[in-house]
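Hey, quick one: can you model this chain's 3D structure?
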Amino acid sequence: MEGGGRVSWIKYGPIVSLFVVLLAIWFRSPQNGELDDRLDTVLSSLLRAERKVGMNDVARPKVAVGFGGCVDLIVDGVSLLNKIDLPPTDQPLHHDYIENAKQLAESFAYFFAPGAAAERFMLNDTLFRELVEASRDLPGNRWAVGGNAPVMAGRMATEGCDVLLGGSFSPDFTDVLSQHITVAGNIVEEPDIHLILEYPSGASWGHYTSRRANRYIIHSDDHNPYLASMEEFAEKLQDFEPDLLVVGGLQMMDNFPFQSGERDALLSRLADLLSSSSPSIGIHFEMASFVEESIMEDLLHYVIPYADSLGMNEQELPNLLSLLKGSNITVLSDPNPRVATVLDQMREVYRLINQHYKDANAENDSANAKGKPLTRLHVHTLAFQAMIVTHGSQWKNTMSATAKASLTANRHVCGSNDIDPSKARLIMDDSFSVSRQEGSQRIPLQETRPVSCWDEEDYEICVAPVLVCTEVYQTAGGGDNISAAGLVLQI
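Sure thing. Here's the predicted structure for all 491 residues.
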């Protein structure tokens, strides 16, 4: 009798499933139907914009990416803190680095409630090892290739590039990399581990509730701060002849206990590498979570002047702008900024960096110019992607690149190359102002042409909405994947 029941279900199951779907459509409210149709239209339009530029008819672009890498141990952040019996603090506080469990609780709470991404160096090796051991036993934990450089390299290889990756990795690490990635660097027995404390929107820890999904990252690296692969990377770079050079992972130097003058020497060697590269090679610097003011000042001296492209998120943009204006580091900013606010900040960063370039070269002709002007700026936020690209620069296909960055945000966070509109929502406004200045133009979000582009001064601006993933698989590495995908179509 039981067997007959199973046969009946197998026989009629598809009919029942179809009937359920038809009922759901029949009873779906008109409002929900309109929202679903809107998401479908925006998605198909973004996909069409992405496909306007193909990679099939061109030779694989060559990209060199440095530096470092790690193994990410990804866990549910609240579950880990509960497992080690770390109670929620009554006082959220910012700490430049973490020395004990109390500071960890205060720092985590500080970023958890607003849902802002953060990364901190843990000075206490013993506590870090205890956290890693506790994480190994947590249900649902995952190990993944981590670090800005390997993640960006992986995305670029997936999108059709040949990649030279600078980093010191274990044999097990290199075995899982794409066949289109060549490693330049030393072999290490034990890779650095980064602990990724993920949390979804609406997660609770004591009386704190997260406003959006995000992650809090802890590391206690031995290898990455020293840019140990830089020498071999520089040697292989000459024969590799890349179309683009990408620099990331420098936040591993933030608050690391270097000997006096050690960090300056490393960054000076990096500046020599960047300045000696061919002027025809684009150089992109991917920002990260920096909290130490002195390293930000070092970046303004050693790295940013040689980069003609910058990528960053909504936290890192006001941080960089604050420093460019001579103010202090901005530790925490609005995790859900309006489009107009971000665009105004982008314009100012673009203007200030290029003014610095002009001032530094006031007495030099173009043949003897020091550094490069900034010609590309990409900011990735939860709700939208925004790019500024200088007219006549080497960066092409800005509209399609912005669309691809937007789609990649959903693909990475949802953990699927196929975007499911039922697991997404639009949180960008139906129209946005191009600036906070009074009387500024408002641009409506058009479902059939969701990427808005327009010209200003000597550059083009493009803005695209993100189909925000509602069933989060992973937020860590989002910015690296998004930036890398956007760059692929512009080289």
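One thing worth noting: The CA atoms of residues 91 and 344 lie 33 Å apart.
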